Amino acid sequence: MSTTLSELATITAAARAAAPRAARASGAERSAWLTAMADALDAHTAELVAIADEETHLGEVRLTGEVARTTGQLRLFASVVLEGSYLEATIDHAVPSAVPPRPDLRRLLVPVGPVAVYSASNFPFAFSVAGGDTASALAVGCPVVVKAHSGHPKLSVRTAEIVTEALAAAGAPDGLFALVSGREVGSALVTDPAIKAAGFTGSVSGGRALFDLASQRPDPIPFYGELGSINPVVITAAAVASRGSELAAGLATSFTNGAGQFCTKPGVVFVPEESGFEGLLAEAAAEKTGGQLLTDRITAAYPESLSALASNSAVQVVLGSVEQNSAENGASPVVFATTAVAAASEPDRLYEECFGPTTLLVRYSSEEELVAALKALPGSLTGTIHAESSDDTAEVLDLLSERSGRVLFAGWPTGVAVTWSQQHGGPWPATTSLHTSVGATAGRRFLRPLAFQDAPESALPDALKESNPLGIPRRVDGQLQL
Length: 482
Description:
Elements: H1 5-24, H2 27-43, H3 45-56, H4 60-83, E1 90-92, E2 105-111, E3 115-118, H5 132-139, E4 144-147, H6 153-169, E5 177-180, H7 183-191, E6 197-201, H8 204-216, E7 223-226, E8 233-235, H9 237-256, E9 268-272, H10 277-285, H11 296-310, E10 316-319, H12 326-329, E11 334-339, H13 340-345, H14 347-350, E12 358-364, H15 367-375, E13 380-386, H16 394-403, E14 404-408, E15 447-453, E16 474-476, E17 479-481
């Protein structure tokens, strides 16, 4: 059942009222909130997985693992807020003898206020109601209003119930967390005056529409959208000669994983012409299956995207059938091939994300062809290089680094570790910002800097007091103190 606009107004008003209390909460309090959420979700794993599988068809094994990832990232943020470096506490003591005299300045990051979170279809736990956006926003002291995804409504409601109960039991303020649903409310949420930032994972079209709404407000707010990504892979001739079968098997598993519905799916793979890799991939992928896709919209779009790519005279089908009924039979794998020359001349048509179990091989016959094709790439979440120690990949690395948020030198991009150092973002259209949506620094999206000048000790937050009662890392007079 969709949330009404009047109900939304009540929910966002409650979030606004909770914001000061959330901002003042200690790191220990917020850590306890996140840990309570994680414990509650873990306790209901079997129930939640059953609901999720009914709505998404992603399978018990995958979904059980995703619950563990979701609770793991909640616990990561519980440790982040206790460690304290996320505050970027910085102190410059007064220097009266400086010319001009320098005042006492102290700076830290503070929460922006209530945050809107838009759930994703392809990760019903990790990028949904209690996912990374929610976890990172709550961790830094921002109330959260989550827009449920229409692809898993029952799961969204049940997850929200569990989270709400856990937060209440942990002593969190009323209004700290809420769930809304419905297309009309989704648009209204990002323009609500109480909302001060938004996190989104989804399509380029949907994300751009919300991004524009956020920018056109009388008071524009930051909109952190994770949108489309083709995640280019470069394989050198030496790598094919050394371990071609291994690479083909890895690629076959990666682009069909989750029926090709990962935002980090390798969608464009650059391979040496006449290296034999196409045959190796066709063999490795021959036994792979796709499966039922997440939503009716994705299901309808998959064969349409296949047909559009196949209609290009510069594209050949290496494996699979373009003519398929993904609604009745599920999506089956398809491998396409084209040339680097064609890709460089038609990037808008050939470098387009296709949600489903398919990938495009781009044949290059020289370093010059490869470089030209790489220069035409749009921004992506990831870029991957498979090479040997004898290869000179400096220029390839530079080009992928300019266009990606994470560069891999081994393995495949489907799989995002939730750690302190993770970066899950990239140049447009991968994301609308420069910040990560996964890992410890994801909370930076929902913080703003605040400086205090010549403030009395009693007026300073604990993070900036001279005695450092929190015991957190700080930079004092230019020196990092751990």
